[in-house]
Specification:
328 residues; alpha/beta; Rossmann fold; 9-stranded mixed beta sheet; two-stranded antiparallel ribbon; globular
């Protein structure tokens, strides 16, 4: 997939994969019964131990358990923080468990963070292509391995795309879904040209991905694999969903983005109208990276959505008017 990027003082340069890495970041750019469908942290730990998964606490956080699970040929790394109903956090491109924590969510949820193929501590399978669909299969495989029959999902950027695929393809596993800075159709119309413009094509060594590069090299099984995984993730061709597919998603769905995001606000507005039980939250004065830079402005919105009662007072219309206790 190729796009044309304008260069200052020159003609046009053809850049593969939406300028490689940001193609990965920009295009996405994450309750059977109460007794049986949910699993506490203790239950998850017991299940993991019974299958021989490496599980214990990280040295820097004794409250977090972690392990590796054999999933679709991967040795897939994951971490679990907190107690309560399962909430799966699917990171963005090059994100990984431990890079960010959600203490407010961990108060009432067992937050399960996964390292996707080639990300963080999960090694790549060199001969296997990376795709959003494969990410979804791997996350589902991990949940089945841990014995989780239903969970809520929080996905960021490509992780949000992955959560949406799970909601569509595996509805029986899904409670509620939150996405931050995700896209639901292919580029370039989903992207904000003001925030996704480059004067020079990026590479694996340019400053725009310094944070991701340094984080990867700290935890990856092979730090020198960075250029290869950068190119591989940048080659993902995300095709999104049809209107019919979006209309078939049954799970309660919250779409969140910043008002200065990589994602066009109009795209999120169009999408929220297509998903039957969808809501939209726009974080003011926020970018594509607000979950990292200003988590305190995003997580309260996410927490409210995940924990609110299914029975709600009706929203008021002009015809109905406002009546305390009857409309809101």
């Amino acid at each position: 997939m190729s796009y044309i990027m304008k260069l200052v003082g020159s003609g046009e340069v053809k850049v593969s994969g939406i300028c490689r890495f940001w193609g990965a970041m920009l295009m996405p750019l994450l309750m059977a019964t109460q007794a049986l469908g949910r699993n506490s942290t203790d239950q998850l730990q017991t299940e993991a131990k019974s299958k021989g998964t490496i599980v214990n606490s990280r040295n820097d956080d004794p409250k977090t358990i972690h392990g590796y699970a054999p999933v679709n040929g991967l040795k897939m790394y994951y971490e679990i923080e907190g107690t309560g109903d399962p909430l799966v956090f699917i990171p963005p491109a090059f994100g990984f468990a431990g890079l960010k924590s959600f203490p407010e969510l961990a108060q009432n949820h067992s937050v399960i963070t996964v390292d996707l193929q080639g990300n963080g501590r999960t090694a790549d399978i060199p001969e296997r292509a990376i795709s959003i669909e494969q990410y979804a299969k791997d996350v589902v495989g991990l949940l089945k391995y841990l014995g989780i029959s239903k969970a809520d999902f929080l996905g960021e950027s490509y992780g949000g795309d992955t959560a949406a695929v799970i909601a569509l393809r595996y509805p029986e596993l899904v409670g509620r879904v939150v996405t931050y800075s995700a896209t639901f159709a292919p580029p370039p119309n989903t992207l904000n040209p003001e925030t996704t413009h480059y004067d020079q094509p990026p590479t694996a060594e340019t400053r725009d991905v310094q944070f991701q590069r340094e984080g990867y090299k700290k935890v990856a099984p092979d730090p020198n694999y960075w250029p290869k995984i950068y190119d591989k993730v940048g080659s993902i061709q995300w095709k999104g969903f049809s209107k019919k597919e979006l209309a078939s998603i049954k799970a309660p769905f919250l779409i969140v983005q910043g008002d200065h995001d990589f994602v066009r606000l109009e795209h999120s507005v169009e999408t929220v109208k297509l998903i039957p039980h969808a809501e939209l939250a726009v974080i003011p004065d926020a970018s594509h990276f607000a979950l990292s830079s200003e988590q305190e402005r995003v997580i309260p919105v996410v927490k409210h959505f995940l924990e609110k009662s299914e029975k709600r007072i009706p929203l008021a219309t002009a015809r109905m008017g406002y009546h305390p206790g009857e409309t809101r």
